[in-house]
Amino acid sequence: MRKISTIIACLLVFSLVLAACGGNKNNNASPSASTSASTPAESSAASESSAPTEVDLTQVKATISIYYPTPDQVEKRALEDDKIKRFNEVYPNVEVVKSDWQYNPNEIGIKMGANEAPTLFNTYATEGKFLAEKGWAADITDLFNSYDKKDQLNPILLDQFNIGGKIFGIPQQGYVVGTVVNKKMLTDKGVAVPPLDWTWDDVLATATAVADPGKGIAGIAPMGKGNEAGWNWTNFLFEAGGEIQTIEGGKVTAAFNSDAGLKALEFYSKLKEANVIPADWALGWGDAVGAFAQGRTAMVIAGPDGPLDQGLNQGGLKPEDLLVYPMPAVAAGGKHTGVLGGDFLVVNPNATKEEQQLAFQYAVFDYFSDKGLESTEANIQARKAENKFFVPPVIQYFKQDSEYGAKVKAVYDKYDNVYQYSNELMGLLDGKPEAQFNTQDYYAAMTNVIQEVFSKKGVDLKAQLDAAAKTVQEKFFDQIKVE
């Protein structure tokens, strides 16, 4: 198993904080692999310290609807059920309703208009500015400021929902996009394992060597459907030194149709021409990660914990069969820049003041407690009994170098079924936040471009980029006035 040293973890936090300070806001990751718990005494104390009013929340009759994991996430649902049970021991006056709605930027407006959005719902790091400006996320600044553990939350993540000095979201977990490699597929075919400090050329060479189109085996599966396609490609844009947008003089301008953008799109074209991507390239996140777990592609680009979890627990792979790489540098000596994203919980602004307070209490109910450590350890033990692995997120809601972070690490170190990221990987990761404005709309526009590249020959790449930039500029960016 691989261990993260405290020194390396601290360096990662420092590196990512610098990245977060230099960028603006963030997408698509897999849900958290661990959940913690708190004792009634601790929760009661938390409710007293984090509620901005003197209302006794244990006496308020209320119903709140909460984000509930999808049916395929059996272990996470079990943990959430346990959390609901413990929450009701402290707040027996509250009915907690499980919502099966998963955040969708194309549906949130309809949900809010019909007053059907959950009291507490999940969202991406990209959505902070959007939700705040639309009035679809409650301003929880007072709740946050009254929370006695606010200073222990990870600033790398918290920054993404700090809009104009106000807080609009609660961090759950984060990631820096990397590439997960099925080492067993390479070894079985006699393909050399590339260095961790790899390049675009290494990716292409490895994908070409391991691909077997006749048997339906791809070397790499870049996502080609949904906004995930634009999200995947953005990593290469960042590696080439490009930006999604620039902000100057109160104006937002599309910048991805640059030389860096063209270079990144040319690389995608090379992958298609080399016949190393799946024949059915129209894969969303679940499709691509599923193909990886099933051994139908040797490499997939994502927040690492998702492919690891599926590969180990659904694909029957062993930790030694899988390697987590940073995103490849354009050339030797370059940065391994990957999209910095995360998962957040947002409180519904249409809820009553008491419901908002209770939703916040539910969101942080498991944070920073000894019971949480016990819950995490019980989850690891349960997985071990079923011959399954526990895969933590790359970035936790708490500071990695905090006292609580050290306690969590100590629990991980006790078990051989906990996947731990290598020191070398953590030292190479370079996280860059996504654009501040209309990120999902930009992703959608780039998805159309990527589909053109993957489906046709002789595509004018620069013309495609220019057309996409023109569409995003006129339809979205021109409507923005930056204060």
Topology, element by element:
Layout: H1 6-22, H2 40-50, E1 62-67, H3 74-90, E2 94-99, H4 108-113, E3 120-124, H5 128-134, H6 141-145, H7 155-158, E4 162-163, E5 166-167, E6 170-176, E7 178-182, H8 183-188, H9 200-210, H10 227-239, E8 245-248, E9 251-254, H11 259-273, H12 285-293, E10 299-302, H13 305-313, E11 322-326, E12 336-347, H14 353-364, H15 370-385, E13 395-396, H16 403-413, H17 423-428, E14 429-433, H18 439-455, H19 461-475
Parallel strand pairs: 1-2, 12-14
Antiparallel strand pairs: 3-12, 4-5, 6-12, 6-13, 7-10, 7-11, 8-9
Task: Give the structure's gist in a few sentences.
By secondary structure, this protein is α+β, with helices and mostly antiparallel strands.
Mean pLDDT: 88
**How many whole angstroms does the radius of gyration measure?**
22 Å
- CATH class of the largest domain reads Alpha Beta
Rough outline: globular
Instruction: Indicate the CATH topology of the largest domain.
Output: D-Maltodextrin-Binding Protein, domain 2
How can the largest sheet be summarized?
A: 5 strands, mixed
The share of residues in helices is 40-55%
Characterise this structure.
The protein is of the alpha+beta class. The protein has two domains: 24-174 and 341-432, Periplasmic binding protein-like II (D-Maltodextrin-Binding Protein, domain 2); 178-339 and 434-479, 3-Layer(aba) Sandwich (D-Maltodextrin-Binding Protein, domain 2). It contains 19 helices and 14 strands. It has helices at residues 6-22, 40-50, 74-90, 108-113, 128-134, 141-145, 155-158, 183-188, 200-210, 227-239, 259-273, 285-293, 305-313, 353-364, 370-385, 403-413, 423-428, 439-455, 461-475, and strands spanning 62-67, 94-99, 120-124, 162-163, 166-167, 170-176, 178-182, 245-248, 251-254, 299-302, 322-326, 336-347, 395-396, 429-433. Strands 3, 6, 12, 13 and 14 form a five-stranded mixed sheet that branches. It has a three-stranded antiparallel sheet with strand order 10-7-11. A two-stranded parallel sheet has the order 1-2. A hairpin with a 2-residue loop joins strand 4 (162-163) and strand 5 (166-167). Helix 12 (285-293) crosses helix 13 (305-313). The longest helix is centred in the N-terminal third of the chain and has 17 residues, at 6-22. The protein is globular. Residues 1-51 have low confidence and may be disordered.
